[in-house]
Design brief:
Length: about 250
């Protein structure tokens, strides 16, 4: 079951992001299916159709078309706050992601230097040096960390076989200005209590990101038994994690 339709083009929006304000989305992934290295139980695009860390060449938009489309969008919407790489899965899986990121940054600098660049990534490729160098080009590299132990990672994010938690954490530690985003859920799978919660807090303390952003499942989810964490609980968790780790933690909800 798919809860929200996939993005049908390279650019989507403008849309209002609770974390970034008015934003244009950039989808580097196929438009006919979801391609990701995770299959998260809470993903509002539904189940992952192709789950891999190393995709075969396929239905990716060509770099030239990406740059032409982004240039037109920047000229049409010079007042957006962010240009955000996200879309139908994991954006860093595009085979030319580093080159695209560098070229888009140059376009931004030339056309709309006030527009900031962001990326929503699940962090599974950040341990690759060429991806990490590209992530350093973003003003807001926002990378996922929902779990601090392999068991919880397997239950919530359901990664591709090649994905290892230690690789994710090693990569996050090396991304300049890394912002960690964590989706907190309850119900048949949970990362807000017990050993799973303690492991997550310990992982955040080890990574030491510039900021932690927590939120829950405000959209419908494809899996039964996945429950939303209420705003007052998110706020309490943010305060506790800040006190225990010294990190800046912000909670978001609709």
């Amino acid at each position: 079951m798919r809860v929200l339709p996939l993005e049908k083009d390279i650019i989507y929006g403008p849309l209002f992001s609770r974390r970034l304000g008015r934003s244009l989305g950039v989808n580097l992934l196929p438009t006919g299916y979801k391609l990701c290295s995770f299959d998260c139980v809470y993903c509002h695009y539904g189940r992952t159709d192709v789950k891999t860390l190393v995709p075969k060449k396929g239905d990716f938009p060509p770099m030239r078309r990406v740059l032409t489309t982004v240039e037109m969008a920047l000229r049409r919407h010079p007042d957006v706050a962010y240009l955000t790489f996200s879309g139908n899965g994991e954006p860093t899986l595009h085979p030319h992601f580093p080159s695209i990121a560098a070229a888009v940054r140059r376009l931004r600098d030339d056309i709309s230097p006030k527009v900031r660049l962001a990326i929503f990534s699940n962090g599974t490729t950040a341990h690759f040096p060429h991806i990490r160098e590209a992530l350093a080009l973003f003003d807001a590299p926002i990378l996922k960390l929902d779990a601090g132990d392999p068991e919880t990672l397997a239950r919530i994010n359901r990664p591709a076989p090649e994905v290892k938690l230690e690789d994710i954490m090693d990569g996050l530690k090396e991304v300049p200005g890394c912002i960690v985003q964590s989706v907190l859920v309850d119900g048949r799978v949970s990362n807000i209590r017990g050993e799973a919660f303690e492991a997550w807090v310990a992982a955040l303390a080890a990574v030491r990101p510039a900021q932690v952003q927590i939120y829950s499942t405000d959209y419908p989810v494809p899996e039964a038994g996945v429950e939303r964490v209420l705003p007052y609980v998110l706020k309490r968790i943010a305060e506790e994690v800040e006190e225990r780790t010294g990190l800046q933690v912000r909670a978001y909800w609709f």
